Each structure stands twice: as C-alpha cells, then as structure tokens.
Amino acid sequence: xxxxxxxxxxxxxxxxxxxxxxxxxxxxxxxxxxxxxxxxxxxxxxxxxxxxxxxxxxxxxxxxxxxxxxxxxxxxxxxxxxxxxxxxxxxxxxxxxxxxxxxxxxxxxxxx
Length: 112
Ligand SMILES: [Zn+2]
Hints:
four-stranded antiparallel beta sheet; alpha+beta; 29% helix; 6 strands
C-alpha cells in the first residue's frame, strides 16, 4: 500500500484482473476516479512505467495528472498516451456491497 499499513476496515479493489495489468483511456480513468471520490472512496492511479515497465501505484491519493512520475526510477510516463488503471479503497463496506460494486465495474469495463 502507498501509505504503509492498510487499516482493517478498508477493502482494496483493483479495476483490473489480478496479475493482469490493463490500461484504460485517461479520460475514463479520470471520470471513474471522480465518481468513486464522490461516493466517498479513495483512489490511487496505477500505470505501467514507460522506462522500467514496472506497474506503479501513485503515492498520492485522489490525484491524477497526465504525467505520472515513477519515484524509483525517476521516469515520467504520459498516461494520456499510455493509459492507466485505478485502485479504489472502500471504507466500512460489507462484502455484499463490495461484490455488487465489483459486478457493476466489470459490467462497465466489459471483459476480455
Ligand atoms: Zn520506472
């Protein structure tokens, strides 16, 4: 987690299959982020570093910019070109509401 230990009551959702990084267009990620934020969730942008190819998670919550810097290697990736993903942290949710939420997200993003 970007902020060290994650509290017990926080569930982390990844809008991509585990171990299978998928990038969405910048405007979709930005729109989804605003929606999640309005629902009270915390978002972190994920992207694939253009230099070292590592999957990076932003260490700043609820912030998206076209140029995302990978602190470890110093490379800045233009995610308006490369696309990005989103990590959503939901607080105080039941497993049922999370399941419903995921189902909606899968429906929205489709599957491939
Ligand atoms: Zn890098």
